[in-house]
From TrEMBL:
Pfam families for this protein: DUF3025 (PF11227)
Superkingdom per UniProt: Bacteria
Species this chain originates from: Uliginosibacterium flavum
InterPro entries: DUF3025 (IPR021390)
Name of protein: DUF3025 domain-containing protein
């Protein structure tokens, strides 16, 4: 693999902040896998079994072996020469504990029920998290709780426009899903993340960027590990159009958020 992907990605975009440091460390490398594996060794990354993590070509995945099971059993991540897998590798370098926990959950579900044509509720949720999640970090206490409820009720204008300064003071959005990052290479207004709400103490918001990312990696991985898989499903996520995050898109006025084709009202059951 070579590194032709840097030119395709607008790295200063705010939605790439969660993996920008990992990408920067790879810039100028002549070969993806060599550079990725050097970083994995430097960071002493490992999978949930404690096996050293490495990135290998897709050809290393034996025919008939599930991708998730292979990573779980070997610590080796099959990586194709495309943007999708490149972002996946960047997320591994940026959130290694959380990625390892998701892989552990996938492998456990496959061991229990096999691969099958239907993944089941837990594997569906893990896949959505891995591919399309954003971590919505809200300050502990009333402001964060109120914003979480408002977003669950799709009160977009209230959170993103009318209370814009409140959002800036008490909330952060960190992209995690590698497919979501890939879609945002050619951004359009309707791209929507599945948000995972994280409650964080006041001290979190005073930490430097690297320390905040490490806190999130540890805290969310711990949360998922402690959950009963039966209670982990797609209803655990809150949809959120990425373009709505304050200052992530141009022209975020009242008309922008009034676009019901993107900022859809809560469906009445």
């Amino acid at each position: 693999m070579s590194l032709p992907f840097f030119e395709a990605v607008d790295w200063p975009r705010p939605w790439y902040a969660s993996v920008a440091q990992a990408a920067e460390r790879l810039q100028g490398a002549a070969d993806d896998l060599t550079a990725l594996n050097q970083q994995a060794r430097t960071l002493a990354l490992h999978n949930h079994r404690g096996l050293p993590l490495s990135f290998v070509t897709q050809a290393a995945l034996p025919m008939g072996t599930a991708y998730e099971v292979f990573i779980s059993a070997t610590g080796r991540v099959p990586t194709r020469a495309n943007l999708h897998d490149f972002f996946n590798a960047l997320v591994w370098l940026s959130f290694p504990r959380l990625k390892a926990q998701l892989n552990a959950m996938q492998a456990a579900q496959i061991e229990r029920a096999g691969v099958g044509q239907i993944r089941g509720a837990t594997r569906d949720a893990v896949t959505i998290f891995d591919e399309n999640a954003a971590l919505l970090v809200l300050r502990e206490g009333a402001p964060g709780h109120e914003m979480a409820e408002a977003l669950r009720n799709h009160e977009w204008q209230q959170v993103f426009l009318e209370q814009r300064s409140r959002f800036a003071a008490h909330a952060e959005v960190w992209l995690f899903g590698h497919a979501l990052m890939e879609k945002l290479v050619t951004p359009y207004k309707a791209i929507t993340a599945h948000t995972w709400v994280v409650s964080a103490p006041d001290a979190f918001f005073d930490l430097p960027h690297v320390a905040r990312r490490a806190w999130l990696d540890e805290a969310v991985a711990h949360d998922l590990a402690a959950r009963d898989p039966v209670d982990f499903n797609t209803r655990c996520f809150t949809p959120m159009p990425v373009s709505g995050v304050p200052d992530w898109w141009a022209g975020q006025g009242a008309d922008f958020y009034a676009d019901a084709s993107v900022f859809r009202p809560k469906r009445v059951k």
